[in-house]
Amino acid sequence: MAFVITSECITERAADCVEVCPVDCITLGKDQFLIDPNTCIDCGACEVVCPVEAIYFEEEVPEGERASILKAKTYFGIQ
Ligand code: SF4
Prior knowledge:
It is a single chain. The chain is of the alpha+beta class. The chain has four helices and four strands, in the order E-H-H-E-E-H-E-H. Helix content is 30%, strand content 15%. Strands 1-4 form a two-stranded antiparallel ribbon. A two-stranded antiparallel ribbon has the order 2-3. It binds iron/sulfur cluster (SF4).
């Protein structure tokens, strides 16, 4: 389980999350920032600083944004 950045990030890419992540697990992918699920420690620091509320705990990602979970896992070579 990890936090997940959803599609709101594609147009925003503010990078506030990158600044606060204590384990440096947020990377700029092709079109948005992505969280490495292997490294995320579920601290929630990124979620509260995102200006467009694009970040959710994996189990709480809205139905229409579930593809973001697979997007991050694929990017980081999981599954
Ligand atoms: Fe980093 Fe914490 Fe966000 Fe995980 S929940 S990406 S460890 S700031």
